[in-house]
Design brief:
It is built from 6 helices and 15 strands. The longest helix has 89 residues. α4 packs antiparallel against α5 and α4 packs antiparallel against α6. 53% of the residues lie in helices and 22% in strands. The chain is of the alpha+beta class. The protein folds into 3 domains: 43 residues, no CATH class; 163 residues, RNA polymerase II/Efflux pump adaptor protein, barrel-sandwich hybrid domain (OB fold (Dihydrolipoamide Acetyltransferase, E2P)), CATH 2.40.50; 162 residues, Helix Hairpins.
C-alpha cells in the first residue's frame, strides 16, 4: 500500500480518499420512497483505514521536508557565495571612501563697523535681508566732515602756493649766487691790478722825488757857490739870479714830487683797501652755495608741508566717504544693531554680513581616516537640511587638531592618560556650479564622503 501511494500526486490522493469514504445506500422501508443514506462502514475495517491515512500524511510531510532540505542544500552554497561576493563588493567600495557626520557648512561672516564717529541718520537694511556689493547700509551725519574737507582744501591750496614760491627761489638764488661769486672774483682781480698800478705810480713818484731832491741840492749848492763869486764880480748878477731861480724851482719840484709820492702812497693804500673789500665780498659770495642749500631746504620743507596738506585733504575726503557705509560683498545681513540717532565710535560693530557666495565645508575627520586623504581628492557632500548632494574637493587639511586651538588645550603629561582619537579639520571646497542658488548657509550640518582611493 505504501509503495502504491508513494508516487501519487496530492490530487490523486484526494480522489482516492473520496472513493474510499462511506457509501450512500437507498432505504426503501418508507412509502416505497427510497431515501439515500450513508452506508455505515463496518466497525472493524475503519481503524486500519484511518491508520493508513495518517501514515500517508506522515509520508507526504516527510517527503515535503526532504524536498525542502534538498532544495536548501542546493541553494545554501549559492546564497552563501552571493553573500560573500556582496560583502566583498561592499568592502571594496567602502574602502575607497572616508566619511563623517561631524561636519558643517562654513563661510565668511564679516563685521560691518564705522570708521568715523558721528550720529546715524539712516539705516537702509534689516536683519536677514540680502544685499549686493556696494549697496548702501548705513548713513552717518556728514556736516562736520564737509566742513573739515573745505578747510583741508584751503590749507592745501596755501601750502601749494608756498611750495611753488619756494621752488622758484631755488634757481633764482643759485643763479644770483653764481653771479655774485663771479663778480666778486672780478672785483678782487681788478683791485689787485689797481694795487699793482698804484704801487708802480708810487715807485715812479718816489724816483721823481729823489731826482727833484738831487736837482734841488745841486741848485742850492750852485747858489752857495755863485754867491761869493757875484760879490767879487767874478760872475754876473744875472748868472747868480739864474742860479737862485733854479734853486727855487728845484725846491718847488721837490715839494711837488713829495706831494706826488704822498698821493701815490694814498693810491696804494686805497687799492689795498679795495682788495680787502673785494676779498670780503668774494668770501661773502662764496657762502652763496650754502644759501642755495638753505633755499632748497626751505623748498623741500614747503613741499613736505604740501604733501602733508594733501594727505590731510585726502583723509578729509575719505572721512566724508566713510559717512556712507556700503556692503563689501554679496550676502545676508545679520545681527543688526545700528539704529537711527545712535552715536557710533570708530570700530564699533553695526551689523554682520554673511558671504553666501563663498562657502565651504569643514569636516572633522578622525586622525585614523587621514592616512590616504590628500588635497584635491573628490568629495560628495550630503546636506541634511536640503536633502541633496554637492560635489567638491579637498581644499586643505588642518595643521593641528581642533583641541589644540581650544581655549584650554588638553595637557596629556599627567599620570591618568586616556588615549582619545583626535579629529583634524579638513576644508572641502564645493565646485563653482554647486551653490548657484545660494541655499547653503554657514552652520548647516553636512555629511562629506571623500574618495581616497
Amino acid at each position: 500500500m505504501q509503495d502504491r501511494t508513494a508516487g501519487e500526486t496530492p490530487e490523486q490522493q484526494a480522489q482516492r480518499l473520496q472513493e474510499s469514504g462511506p457509501r450512500i445506500v437507498s432505504d426503501g422501508s418508507r412509502s416505497g420512497e427510497g431515501r439515500a443514506r450513508p452506508q455505515e462502514p463496518q466497525a472493524e475495517p475503519r481503524e486500519p483505514q484511518i491508520d493508513q491515512e495518517k501514515s500517508r500524511e506522515e509520508e507526504e510531510a516527510a517527503a515535503r521536508t526532504a524536498q525542502r532540505k534538498t532544495r536548501i542544500k542546493k541553494i545554501a552554497p549559492l546564497i552563501l557565495l552571493l553573500a560573500v561576493v556582496g560583502a566583498l563588493l561592499w568592502w571594496l567600495h567602502a574602502r575607497q571612501y572616508e566619511d563623517t557626520d561631524d561636519a558643517q557648512v562654513d563661510g565668511h561672516i564679516g563685521q560691518i563697523g564705522s570708521r568715523i564717529s558721528g550720529y546715524i541718520t539712516g539705516v537702509q537694511v534689516e536683519d536677514n535681508q540680502e544685499v549686493q556689493p556696494g549697496q548702501l547700509l548705513v548713513e552717518i551725519d556728514p556736516k562736520d566732515y564737509e566742513v573739515a574737507l573745505a578747510k583741508a582744501r584751503a590749507d592745501f591750496a596755501d601750502s601749494q602756493a608756498q611750495a611753488s614760491a619756494a621752488s622758484f627761489n631755488v634757481p633764482i638764488t643759485s643763479i644770483a649766487t653764481a653771479s655774485q661769486i663771479e663778480s666778486a672774483g672780478a672785483d678782487v682781480s681788478n683791485a689787485r691790478a689797481a694795487l699793482s698800478a698804484s704801487q708802480k705810480n708810487l715807485d715812479a713818484a718816489k724816483a721823481k722825488e729823489v731826482a727833484a731832491i738831487a736837482n734841488n741840492t745841486k741848485a742850492q749848492n750852485d747858489v752857495q757857490r755863485y754867491k761869493p763869486l757875484v760879490e767879487r764880480d767874478v760872475i754876473s748878477k744875472q748868472q747868480y739870479d739864474a742860479a737862485v731861480a733854479a734853486a727855487q724851482s728845484t725846491a718847488a719840484d721837490v715839494e711837488s714830487a713829495h706831494d706826488n709820492v704822498i698821493a701815490a702812497q694814498e693810491g696804494v693804500t686805497q687799492a689795498q683797501a679795495r682788495i680787502v673789500q673785494a676779498q670780503a665780498n668774494l668770501r661773502n659770495a662764496q657762502t652763496g652755495p650754502r644759501q642755495v642749500r638753505v633755499t632748497e631746504a626751505r623748498a623741500n620743507s614747503a613741499q613736505s608741508s604740501q604733501q602733508k596738506s594733501l594727505a590731510e585733504l585726502q583723509q578729509a575726503e575719505l572721512n566724508l566717504q566713510y559717512t556712507k557705509i556700503n556692503a563689501p560683498v554679496h550676502g545676508v545681513v545679520g545681527h543688526r544693531t545700528a539704529e537711527v540717532g545712535q552715536y557710533v565710535q570708530p570700530g564699533q560693530a553695526l551689523m554682520s554680513i554673511v558671504d553666501i557666495d563663498n562657502v565651504w565645508v569643514t569636516a572633522n575627520f578622525k586622525e585614523t581616516q587621514l592616512r590616504y586623504m590628500k588635497k584635491d581628492q573628490p568629495v560628495e557632500v550630503h546636506v541634511d537640511a536640503l536633502g541633496r548632494d554637492y560635489r567638491g574637493k579637498v581644499l586643505d587639511i588642518g595643521g593641528a587638531s581642533g583641541a589644540r586651538f581650544s581655549l584650554f588645550p588638553p595637557e596629556n603629561a599627567t599620570g591618568n592618560y586616556v588615549k582619545v582619537v583626535q579629529r583634524i579639520p579638513v576644508r572641502i571646497l564645493l565646485d563653482a556650479d554647486q551653490n548657484k542658488d545660494h541655499l547653503l548657509r554657514p552652520g548647516m550640518s553636512a555629511e562629506p564622503k571623500v574618495k581616497v582611493r
